[in-house]
Amino acid sequence: MWLEDINLGSYRQIFKEHGVNGEYLEGMSMFTTEQILRFIRQCHMKWGDFITLCKELRRIKGQQKVHRPWWAPPCLSVVFVKVAKRNRQSRIVSLKLEQ
């Protein structure tokens, strides 16, 4: 699993116990600060591990291919792909730490 690849394999069991799956992680981009803090406490995560998880989710989302909808004419495919990429990137979980 990719958690081992980013040295977060120790959270696999905790994620499983709390029902954290791909769909849940996808929805994290809409989490409020309270929900993020609850997730971190619930999974006993360290801040650094949470940031690593967010960076990996961002990387994974960036690699996903975007295709034009089947109903869109080919001449508009560039427009649909650009908008879809921009929308997806805006939903990505990102933490900005103020110094």
TrEMBL record:
Domain of life (superkingdom): Eukaryota
Domain SAM, first and last residues per copy: 1-30
InterPro entries named in the record: SAM, SAM/pointed_sf
Annotated protein name in UniProt: SAM domain-containing protein
Organism encoding this protein: Gossypium lobatum
